UniProtKB/TrEMBL annotation:
UniProt entry keywords in alphabetical sequence: ATP-binding, Nucleotide-binding, Transport
Entries under SUPFAM superfamilies matching the protein: P-loop containing nucleoside triphosphate hydrolases
Protein name, per record: ABC transporter ATP-binding protein
InterPro entries: AAA+_ATPase, ABC_AA/LPS_Transport, ABC_transporter-like_ATP-bd, BCA_ABC_TP_C, P-loop_NTPase
Location of the ABC transporter domain: 5-238
GO molecular function, one term: ATP binding
Length: 242
């Protein structure tokens, strides 16, 4: 039986730069997988390959039993895959609610009162309901991160992919965002979360994967992975022989 998300032998290069090197991993339904790796390891490219904004040289992506490798990004989103972007990309001149509605209608395929009710629910969940009518461009960084989360959730994802959503936040802001992500996970959404803020990731995920040069170098229980000498050397810069 295949996993909820099954990535098999994914390969992608940009000339001499390899961003996915025979990448294989699986995510089970309800799991929260954390992804670590140095800058330029290929983490965002991996999201692009899974969500379809980048096409693979070879390999396959199976989601909920369907081979979606040839699907467009829009079709993958309709199938239940959604992601946030490392750099928040709201429609700055529109309100928070309008941003949510665009995600729900254009990407999520909802309309009318169904879309409105869903957006209100999501904005409540992401703690932005009290700012629904302000311009997205006037939000703080935490607000823009919350709006990224909102826009991803408004498409009704079954697999939510978060790309460095905690980056640049203060400790307090990070804690509050982590609580929201925990609540989303507890509501049944499967998560893959790329993050450099390791303590935030460890507060949520039940499995960790480390990639470097597009290749999976470790995968397993978070504490065990963090303690492995290879990961400490490659990710944290600590020499395994020291
Ligand atoms: N479209 C592209 N064309 C050429 N090179 C690219 C392209 N997209 C990404 N790269 C390169 O591929 C490598 C991996 O980039 P990617 O953004 O996937 O890394 P990352 O692990 O997400 O890094 P970070 O942690 O800094 O966000 C980098 O060297 C990047 O410059």
């Amino acid at each position: 039986m295949t996993a909820f998300l099954q990535v098999d032998n994914l390969c992608k290069s940009f000339g001499a730069i390899t961003v996915a090197d025979d990448l294989c991993f699986a995510v089970e339904k309800g799991q929260a997988l954390g992804v670590l790796g140095p800058n330029g390891a290929g983490k965002t490219s991996m999201f692009n390959l899974i969500t379809g904004t980048l096409s693979a040289n070879s390999g396959s992506v199976i989601f909920d039993g369907t081979n979606i490798t040839k699907y467009s990004a829009a079709k993958r989103c309709r199938a239940g895959l959604s992601r946030s972007f490392q750099v928040p990309q709201p429609f700055s001149g529109m309100t928070v609610f309008e941003n949510a509605m665009i995600a729900a209608t254009q990407a999520g395929g909802m309309s009318g009162s169904e879309a409105e009710a869903h957006c209100i629910n999501v904005l409540e969940q992401t703690e932005l309901l009290d700012r629904a009518n302000i311009q997205a461009g006037s939000l703080t960084l935490l607000g823009r991160k919350r709006l990224e989360l909102t826009r991803a959730l408004c498409t009704k994802p079954r697999l939510l992919m978060l790309d460095e959503i905690a980056g640049g936040l203060t400790e307090g802001e990070c804690r509050s965002l982590v609580q929201s992500i925990k609540n989303i996970h507890a509501s049944g959404v499967t998560i893959i979360w790329i993050e450099h803020v390791v303590h935030a990731l460890l507060a949520v995920v039940d499995k960790l994967m480390v990639i470097d040069f597009g290749r999976k170098i470790a995968e397993g229980p978070p504490r065990q992975i963090m303690e492995s000498p290879e990961v400490q050397e490659i990710y944290l810069g600590i020499d395994a022989d020291e």
